[in-house]
Amino acid sequence: MQNLLDAIPDFMVEVIEVRELGDVTLTKMNASGHGADSDSPLEETLWVAVQWRDKKIVLWGTFATEAEALEAVGLSE
Predict the structure, then answer these.
(1) Number of domains comprising the chain
(2) Residues 19-36 as b or e (16 or more Cβ within 10 Å = b)
(3) Which residue segment(s) compose the domain that 55 sits in?
(4) What is the pLDDT of residue 1?
(5) pLDDT value of residue 2
(6) Does residue 77 sit within a domain?
(7) Element (H, E) at 51
(8) Residues 51 and 24 sit within 8 Å (Cβ to Cβ)
């Protein structure tokens, strides 16, 4: 995490939406910031899929698209 903050000191993540889909939690987030040396902007949408079993996480993944996140946990759009 320190390497990330060194490269993008104003890195921020905003939670846009959280959905409960049975044993899966799907979260849409926007990540943003600017490069430390170049001041180049970063703006990216991320999807996090978490699959639960017996109140424990059995899968946690970050994906570029909603479709990829759903596929990883065996669901489809």
Answers:
(1) 1
(2) eeeeebbbbbbeeebeee
(3) 2-72
(4) 78
(5) 84
(6) no
(7) strand 41-53
(8) yes
Mean pLDDT in residue range 56-64: 96
Two tokens, residue 1: 């995490």
Tell me whether residue 18 is in a domain.
Answer: yes
Tens of pLDDT, residue by residue over 34-54, are 999 998 999 999 999 999 999
Q: Is residue 19 part of a domain?
A: yes
Residue 7 corresponds to which amino acid?
Answer: A
Indicate if the alpha-carbon torsion angle 46, 51, 55, 58 is positive or negative: negative
- The model scores a pTM over 0.85: no
pLDDT in tens, 11-28: 999 999 999 999 999 999
- DSSP label at residue 11: -
Provide the CATH number for the domain around residue 25: 3.10.450.50
Amino acid at 61: G
